[in-house]
Amino acid sequence: MNAPPRPQPTDPRDRPARLTVGVVGAGRVGPALAASLALAGHRPVAVSAVSEASVRRAGRLLPDVPVVTPAEVLARAELVLLTVPDDALPGLVEGLVETGSVRPGQLIVHTSGRYGTKVLDPALRAGALPLALHPAMTFTGTPVDVQRLAGCAFGVTAPEELRLAAEALVIEMGGEPEWIREESRPLYHAALALGANHLVTLVAESMELLRTAGVEAPDRMLGPLLGAALDNALRSGDAALTGPVARGDAGTVAAHVTELRKHAPETVAGYLAMARATADRALAHGLLKPELAEDLLGVLADGAEGDKR
């Protein structure tokens, strides 16, 4: 279902800007969020970018916004988006504080799914206002990302006194805030990675196998099937499980493993792991009959042993 268009009653340039916005890290996320905030009347004033690709991306989504150093971004902006890879975030925060770049009263927002606001403690001690706003969305680095933020859930962690500010920023970007406890951030992020990142891998592998099997347009074949499977899973959870594993068709699964070993041996371990997880869930929810499960689990165990040999 397409998200409803975001209301734009007036040109944002005709409204008084409420906050100047800076972006540290012009990957796929930061420029899109800043462009979305611009639609809400805020004013992007600076962005830092290192690679040629990130400079081009910033130019597409934030035209006429100067590319400067991270320190200069903080010097110009009241609201700073730190949109760097998770592993780089702690060092970036510490470095900005050590160089005196962080100002009291400055809103420092990171978009990491893994971290809450504790990673911003050095900035907090310097007087900044810390927010963790993670959009649960995949980004392309193109203007379509701004449109996709409409209705997008954001995993939000913030001090109690900043909850209203966090909510307001998410809503202004067209998103929906979902509060995540500090200690739950890694689990929250793992859940999203399991569902979204691994889905891309599974779909890509499935398309490659279909091409090997002679299908000329695997995307057209998979599109309706995967769309229906996703819709059913979101609506019904485990009750939506279908296929040979849920039915207990051990012979079919054994044939799958044989063919995968022949044509795409690198996919066997993933197939077996997902099949075992599917079998466990189907058993637990009464979809897989126990009398059929024994042979099926035997096939999966034999397949795993074959991988070790």
TrEMBL record:
SUPFAM superfamilies (alphabetical): 6-phosphogluconate dehydrogenase C-terminal domain-like, NAD(P)-binding Rossmann-fold domains
InterPro entries: 6-PGluconate_DH-like_C_sf, DUF2520, NAD(P)-bd_dom_sf, OxRdtase/DH_put_Rossmann_dom, TM1727-like_C_sf
Annotated DUF2520 domain residues: 152-278
Domain of life: Bacteria
Ranges for domain Putative oxidoreductase/dehydrogenase Rossmann-like: 13-135
Protein name per UniProt: Rossmann-like and DUF2520 domain-containing protein
Organism of provenance: Streptomyces aureus
